[in-house]
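User: Let's play a game. I give you a shape written as tokens, and you guess the letters that built it. Ready? Here's round one.
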């Protein structure tokens, strides 16, 4: 992390119960470098009282160090986006971070509409570099327009070379290059050449504001 200038990482465990506790204990020694997030317990979701048990486990995980919650989707994409919108709309005092640009790379305008409507919504760029770097002009304009709402993420391992390719895509004006070690796509990648103010917000300022 120090080698590539990463100050803090979020550990998305997708876990609850003993599995979460074990992971949280491992990272508790480094509170300034890692935040551990729990999952959501779907055990016996078809049984009466499940909602109360799931919320109680969420509260317990928070007491044991969880700083946030992430969960796997069990709906199709349109249903997930609708569910996200309902949650963001109905909980205006809660900050939501849509991972992977809400998987809206095929239509970033859909995410833009949500940004325009809901000031408590953010999105990260994790693991979608191979999807937005082929459209550098549009992606650049989108990220600079919504620079206050986008945060840096990776979700592709932790090797220095992985971080460096993300920096190249966001920062450079390089054109028509390939990165087969990280992306198996046949299409070329392009640097977005984001301005310094946008990069500062994406890399640090927005995350600091979210985490206070």
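Assistant: Ready! My guess for every position:
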């Amino acid at each position: 992390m120090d080698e590539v200038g990463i100050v803090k990482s979020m550990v998305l465990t997708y876990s609850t119960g003993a599995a979460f506790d074990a992971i949280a204990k491992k990272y508790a020694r480094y509170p300034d470098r890692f935040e551990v997030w729990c999952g959501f317990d779907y055990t016996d979701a078809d049984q009466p009282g499940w909602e109360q048990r799931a919320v109680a486990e969420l509260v317990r995980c928070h007491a044991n160090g969880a700083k946030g919650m992430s969960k796997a989707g069990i709906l199709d994409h349109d249903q997930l986006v609708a569910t996200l919108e309902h949650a963001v709309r109905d909980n205006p005092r809660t900050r939501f971070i849509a991972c992977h640009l809400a998987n809206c790379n095929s239509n970033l305008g859909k995410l833009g509409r949500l940004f325009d409507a809901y000031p408590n919504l953010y999105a990260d760029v994790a693991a979608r570099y191979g999807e937005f770097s082929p459209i550098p002009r549009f992606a650049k304009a989108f990220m600079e327009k919504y620079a206050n709402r986008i945060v840096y993420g990776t979700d592709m391992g932790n090797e220095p070379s992985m971080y460096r390719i993300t920096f190249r895509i966001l920062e450079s004006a390089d054109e028509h290059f390939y990165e087969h070690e990280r992306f198996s796509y046949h299409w070329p990648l392009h640097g977005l050449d984001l301005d310094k103010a946008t990069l500062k917000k994406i890399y640090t300022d927005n995350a600091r504001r979210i985490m206070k």
